[in-house]
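Researcher: Let's do a round of design. I'm pasting the structure tokens now; please hold your answer until I've finished.
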């Protein structure tokens, strides 16, 4: 159950996820926003730096099933950004990215830690608002929208409002917004191994990604094991 969140704002911290997970006492229902994040991380320990003006916010949860959290927060984030950019070109990339025409706008990172007898989780959301990182394939709201763009605080409050909405069909809501459903993509299990070409079919009942190989074999990919690369190439004949 997603609780109502109360937003806390700090000027700077190394990582909003780390700050929440190391905080004494309950973190359930706390949303921590840093105007500057200096040592943020993405999946597989990738660096995620956030200059002032970008959104860096983490949501504290306790006693919640973590498996579907990236999907739940992804759908909520899509709903917040869609009025700013429009629906066309905006989508969710499995397992944890928001993309615009294949370019990464935002990432979601779920980290968990045992605290006594309870498991606590921090769900970090990083959205490029004013500035995209200097890496290929990144994008920022400022470069894509006309007119004034929202502050990080306004975006965080919008996300809190969306998370308060009851989601009766999370799987369907995520698939409706999937940027690569039905497309040929590449799954990468290890940087030293070749990518595997598959067709993205949708979410499996357990939240993994259901895919099909060129030979017609179907299997479920999991975020702990694989990353997805958008692949525009057609399948081999």
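Researcher: That's everything. Go ahead.
Model: Designed sequence:
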């Amino acid at each position: 159950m997603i609780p109502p969140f109360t937003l806390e704002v700090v000027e700077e911290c190394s990582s909003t996820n780390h700050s929440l997970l190391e905080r004494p006492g309950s973190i359930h229902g706390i949303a921590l926003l840093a105007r500057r994040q200096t040592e943020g991380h993405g999946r597989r320990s990738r660096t995620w730096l956030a200059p002032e003006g970008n959104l860096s916010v983490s949501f504290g949860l306790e006693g919640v099933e973590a498996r579907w959290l990236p999907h739940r927060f992804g759908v909520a984030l899509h709903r917040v950004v869609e009025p700013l950019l429009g629906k066309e070109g905006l989508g969710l990339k499995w397992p944890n990215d928001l993309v615009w025409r294949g370019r990464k706008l935002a990432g979601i990172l779920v980290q968990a830690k045992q605290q006594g007898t309870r498991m606590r989780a921090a769900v970090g959301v990083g959205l490029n608002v004013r500035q995209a990182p200097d890496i290929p394939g990144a994008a920022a709201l400022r470069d894509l929208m006309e007119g004034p763009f929202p502050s990080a605080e306004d975006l965080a409050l919008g996300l809190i409002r969306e998370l308060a909405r009851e989601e009766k069909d999370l799987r369907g809501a995520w698939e409706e917004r999937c940027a690569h459903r039905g497309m040929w993509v590449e799954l990468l299990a290890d940087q030293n191994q070749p990518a595997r070409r598959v067709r993205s079919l949708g979410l499996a009942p357990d939240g993994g990604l259901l895919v099909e190989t060129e030979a017609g074999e179907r299997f479920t990919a999991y975020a702990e094991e694989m990353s997805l690369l958008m692949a525009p190439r057609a399948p081999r004949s």
